[in-house]
Design brief:
10 helices, 74% helix, elongated
């Protein structure tokens, strides 16, 4: 019974540390964040932070890896074969994921940030898009062409989301996702009058 209490306290403390890190990333560059800053915002001792993490970059990597798992779980639930001809459901799901922790994604997707999260997300999405394209009988089966298409779709999509996070965000995220889906589905023809 006491083991469960300890586990909950550990989870609560790690969550406080991670949330403090996310808060600080929204305020300053990751290179300017110290363990003392995190401890102060999380309302824990520096020693407590070091009990769970070796440093700033370990916290960041854990956050990124958790996000990748969330993305993969959500994407794996999608029926890409069904949705590849109308990707709006795919983009609605991605929008839901982004809205789930907008502050964290905003911090990780800043252009100044040399985060590996973009590359990790691109790899995860590219695999799923490639598989969806490969399993769709109405799409050309040439593996090289499918690889190019998957890279183009995921690269363009992530770049557009990254652009949005670094802009004034005047376009609502849902509308941005809908427009990305239109471009993926119809190409530049969707821009014609």
């Amino acid at each position: 019974m006491s083991e469960k209490k300890i586990d909950r306290r550990v989870i609560k403390t790690k969550r406080a540390i991670r949330n403090a890190f996310i808060t600080l990333m929204a305020q300053k560059d990751v290179n300017d964040i110290s363990i003392k800053d995190i401890a102060d915002v999380a309302d824990v001792d520096r020693k407590t932070v070091y009990n769970y993490y070796n440093g700033i970059y370990e916290i960041r990597e854990e956050l990124e890896n958790d996000l990748i798992v969330l993305w993969k779980e959500a994407i794996d639930k999608l029926d890409f074969e069904k949705n590849i001809s109308n990707p709006q459901q795919i983009f609605a799901t991605l929008t839901e994921i982004l809205n789930g922790n907008l502050d964290l994604y905003s911090s990780l997707m800043k252009l100044e940030s040399k985060s590996m999260v973009i590359r990790k997300l691109a790899r995860a999405l590219t695999e799923v898009v490639r598989e969806g394209l490969t399993n769709n009988p109405s799409i050309c089966g040439d593996i090289k062409k499918l690889d190019v298409a998957a890279q183009f779709i995921t690269g363009g999509m992530l770049s557009t989301y990254q652009y949005w996070f670094n802009s004034d965000r005047s376009l609502p995220l849902e509308e941005l996702s809908r427009e990305i889906g239109n471009v993926v589905l119809y190409g530049i023809k969707c821009l014609e009058k």
